[in-house]
Design a protein that fits this description.
This protein has 2 domains: 142 residues, S-adenosylmethionine decarboxylase; 88 residues, no CATH class. The chain is 27% helix and 32% strand. The protein is built from 7 helices and 13 strands. The protein has a 7-stranded antiparallel beta sheet. Helix 4 crosses helix 5.
């Protein structure tokens, strides 16, 4: 696990124009997610910065009429294999809303609140949501967020599951965002089967880890059937510069 703070959820809502319809945002927050901001104030008297409390969580939003510096959002958008023209689209953003959710007694509830706040910030002017080291297409992010209303976890909004080409017909799969829950990121190295099967595999494990607050440990095994025992190994990351959990893939 790297040294980033856990239990804090941070993201950037990328906007086409240098304006933000704050009233519409708060209306969607109330109407769509039944979140009524408590003790809503403008931080330091700045009309573009809002802070409020909700169920013991501290939530802040800051509108910045400038793009994310140093092309950081564009560089990370390139890793979204589900969005073909991500880099071109993201390069058009001219402003951002910085969203932060921290505190709260339960990390999962804080994470779900973060998704609800980001979803409420999405409108026709939104290009994407930059969080978990990736830029999500706004439509995709919002569609996944709706699963909360069906009492399901929006796994890919909470934790990004990525794929990279490892050469020789092999691929690596990995998670980004488990560290926010105080967990090690997970990698599956050198698989050769259908990529969609690996995505389903990692989605299932990720849902178990964050849904059950499970802690996977070096040297143990995990399985989805009574007979399945997949080895777990903690070692230096392949896609990361810190230690990750490698899980054996059931070929």
């Amino acid at each position: 696990m790297n040294n980033n703070e856990t239990g804090r959820f941070l993201g950037f809502v990328l906007l086409k124009h240098r304006s933000w319809d704050k009233d519409s945002f708060f209306k969607r927050l109330r109407d769509n997610w039944n979140i009524e901001p408590k003790d809503l104030t403008n931080a330091k008297g700045d009309e573009n910065i809002f802070v409020f409390e909700h169920d013991s969580m501290h939530i802040s939003l800051a509108f910045i009429p400038a793009p994310v510096p140093e092309h950081e959002a564009e560089d990370n958008a390139a890793f979204n294999f589900m969005w073909r023209d991500a880099v071109d689209q993201v390069s058009q953003h001219t402003a951002q809303i910085v969203v932060s959710v921290m505190g709260g007694e339960d990390k999962l509830e804080s994470a779900l609140t973060f998704v609800k706040v980001c979803d409420s910030a999405i409108d026709d002017d939104t290009i994407g949501i930059y969080t978990n080291g990736i830029v999500y297409q706004s439509r995709m992010y919002s569609e996944m967020a709706q699963s909360i209303k069906e009492r399901q976890l929006p796994i890919l909004d909470l934790v990004w599951i990525g794929l990279t080409n490892a050469g020789n017909g092999k691929f690596n799969g990995y998670t980004m965002g488990l560290e926010n829950f105080g967990k090690y990121e997970i990698e599956v190295i050198g698989y050769t089967t259908n990529p969609s099967k690996l995505l389903d595999f990692l989605t299932g494990i990720t849902g178990y880890v964050i849904g059950e607050d499970a802690t996977l440990k070096d040297g143990e095994t995990i399985g989805f059937t009574a007979d399945q025992k997949l080895k777990i190994t903690l070692s230096d990351g392949v896609e990361f510069d810190y230690k990750t959990l490698k899980i054996e893939y059931p070929y």
